[in-house]
Amino acid sequence: MVVVTPAGADAPASPAWMDLLARGAGGRIVPSLSNCLVLLRHDARLRGMLAWDEFSCRHIITRAAPPPYDSAQPAPGPYPRPMEDMDAALIQAYLQRAYDLPVSRTVGEQACRTAAMMRRTHPVREWLDGLRWDGTPRLGAWLHHALGCADDAYHAAVGARFLCAAVRRVRSPGCKFDYVPVLEGRQGMGKSRLLATLFGTAWFKDDLPRDLGEKDAAQGLLGVWGVEMAELQALGRSSARDAKAFFSRQHDRYRPTYGAFEVTRPRQCVFAGTTNEEEYLTDPTGNRRYWPVTCAHADVAWVEKWRAQLWAEADHVEATSLMPLWLENGHVGAIARQAQDSRMHEDVWRDPVTAWLRMGGAGAGAHGGCAAPCPRPAARPSGPHGAEARGHHPARPWLDPPQAALRHVRAAMGVGRVGWGWEDATFVKKDGARKRLSVGAGYRAGPVVAFSAMDPSRL
């Protein structure tokens, strides 16, 4: 057999690696998967062409595959880019032409995917590896310079931890970080553009699905370093439980679209919210994961100028000191809790329930429980089939009256935030045993709830 020397090669194929090829009768190269892998690894025109992107978790091609004939135009770029069926077909055609190797489509595609997995790359890590910090500290003041935030310990801690967490997420995928800085400021200020500039448009995403429980929400995080929740839309559409579970997740487990098997992908991204609202937090038990950041302006030009040095410093800090990625208890932690409390959305039930509790809870029982009549909304649908006839809260018609009252009072009081304990409205403890508490007695007069007062003076 006459072996055609691949175009562009300086000399005939090296016998050192050609000896690795399995041959059949007459010395003909066998069109096997192992032979294709040898050629993909050693051929001068194919070597290093395919890779596995560990950031986006997909096969990529780094340069154009050899055209099927000499006068043909190479496949369009830009490169690197995700590998397509056309690329595998061009490589298969090249092997057939250059080595007289009748490779089947199945073997050719398997060889391309396997060869790519044997050569791994990570664009963000490689970019960070190429940065050199100039030694000037900027990490603690970048929020002040870029967004006009107060130059204080709280914003210094939030800014430094956010960037260090982003670096750690790509250096150690799946590391624990479930905090979300929320950039507050007028609409059109440029908060989103600043975040896109900070992370790079190729590694930035601002269209998170509104339902965080969907598979698309997790699958869409592949190849993304920074994720913006624009105007906190995803937070508003998802339940507090879904939001807490989503941000706390270190690994995403799902079956990819058109995939046959379930995969587990460690998180390599961080999240930031943007809003022009003053009150946007609704779950008192999950507020600690949100770090409010009040912005006066968005200096995108400053971020463009110092972006490389910001990330170089964050990478240096991660390599030398491993900064804690949470706000410690103390002065900074107290500022964070105060900022979070001030962003709580006040429920319409809060004032009447608070007033009733301040009166000492008329009707308090001997065991600390007390039946509190909940005020009804001013507007309510009328008619024999309306919510008033059924005794249901109009915003939650699937709940029975006591449950509706409990839900709203729980949100209104901010359990764990204003010093009042919660006692189950169905069961209460009595003499060490759980006794059923009847909540139907006050049904006609209005739904009732059960409280256990810890320290009324704190209200």
UniProtKB/TrEMBL annotation:
Compositionally skewed regions (Low complexity) per UniProt: 375-384
Superkingdom of the source species: Bacteria
Sequence segments annotated as region (Disordered): 375-400
Pfam families hit by this protein: VapE-like_dom
Residue ranges annotated for the Virulence-associated protein E-like domain, each copy included: 128-317
InterPro entries recorded: VapE-like_dom (IPR007936)
Name of the featured protein: DNA primase
